[in-house]
Amino acid sequence: MLNSKGITEILSVGRSIKAATSGDPALGPLSLLPGVWKNLPSLPGRGWNLIALPFATPRDSQFPFNYRLLMNQYNEELRFSLIDKGIPNRGINRTNSGTVESDQLLVALDYEQSIVQIAADDAPNSSLAGNPGAAIHHEPGLWLHILNETESGLDIARLATIPHGDSVLAMGRASTIDGPPNIPDISGLPTGVRADINNNPYLGPYKAFHGTNKFRGLFDPATPNDLLREANTGVKITRTTILDVDTDIPTGGISNIPFIVKQANATSMRSTFWIQELSDLDESGKPKLRLQYSQTVMLDFFPRTDGTSGLIRWPHISINTLEKVSD
To answer: Are the CB atoms for 163 and 50 separated by under 8 Å?
Structure first.
């Protein structure tokens, strides 16, 4: 949180929109993000994605369940370029002594995410997975640093616009720790079905990429975050900034176009960014920077098969390990 002196300085200058610079104190926990982050040619393919999709499966298919599991390996460019500083949200506060101005101030950092796949496969095979070099995702959006008038300690937010027809608002909290991040276990298996990947035929598409059959020999849908932890082996991380946001925190949410709501409704999203400062220094003598993230979007479609009411929730998971290549 920016101190009162910093807020006063922003108020004295007024609102400004300009090129973002790394280390700008007005960005608070977002201050290391400005610049360009990539999967370097020396370490390509650190991006991994899994998503279950409705699919009209032939009756004689090995997996006749009308869905397919799509797996992608990808390279990414994540660019943070503009800062909008001193955004005012107008408000008042009524007290016993009268009514006073109680404006909220925000700082916004824009971003643009572009993803190109290296390889893809699905089960059952659909011939729709696409070829290497195919563009599979583009996302413009904003990260917000909330300077004052916060609710329940919520000091950051992420707004995302996805060309499929989804708009996302996720609220959250930032924190900083010494050393590397503690990356949690997550599962890519759906909820609302019997979660036995080895013995439940309905999870056959997941078993096709499980254990000794990992996608590209590396990515297992049952334990996707394993690859983030493995990427940190031997890396000396001195400090980690954690950006954790969730659409299930009031007043977040996802709005979708009607077709998505009907077919595979995106109902929630949680993402965690770990911005890492390394013991190795760059050419200017500053710590080299890495960025890891784990993101889960829940897609709801098809009736549950576990005896409870409602729809199956299918995790759409994306993970990556990026390096900062430019300020």
So the answer is: no
**Residue 269 confidence class, pLDDT cut points 50, 70, 90:** very high
CA–CA gap between residue 164 and residue 139 (Å, rounded): 10
The burial class, CB within 10 Å (0-12 / 13-18 / 19+), for 324 is buried
- Tokens 């659409």 belong to 247
Read off φ and ψ for residue 200, nearest 5 degrees.
-90, 110
Residue 88 contacts residue 105 (beta carbons within 8 Å): yes
CA distance 63 to 220: 19
Contact 46, 37 (CB under 8 A): no
Amino acid sitting at position 296? T
Sign of the CA dihedral running 218, 221, 223, 225: positive
Q: What's the token pair of residue 107?
A: 């700082």
pLDDT bin (cut points 50, 70, 90) of residue 40 is: confident
For 59-104, write each residue's pLDDT tens digit: 899 999 999 999 999 999 999 999 999 999 999 988 888 888 889 9
Residue 60: strand, helix, or coil: coil
Which fold does the domain 4-326 belong to in CATH?
Answer: Lipocalin (2.40.128)
Contact 289, 276 (CB under 8 A): yes
Half-sphere exposure of 186 (CA within 13 A, CB side): 27
Would you say residue 5 has pLDDT above 90? no
Q: Are 292 and 304 in contact (CB under 8 A)?
A: no
Q: What is the pTM of this model?
A: 0.94
pLDDT band at 283 (very low <50, low <70, confident <90, very high): confident
Residue 320 φ/ψ region, left for φ over 0, alpha for ψ in the -120 to 50 degree band, beta for the rest: beta
Two tokens at 270?
A: 């949680």
Residue ranges in 107-249 assigned as alpha helix (H) = 204-207, 226-231
Could you tell me which of 78, 83, 79 has the C-alpha nearest to residue 20?
A: 83
Q: Report the alpha-carbon distance of residue 321 to residue 274 in Å, rounded.
A: 9
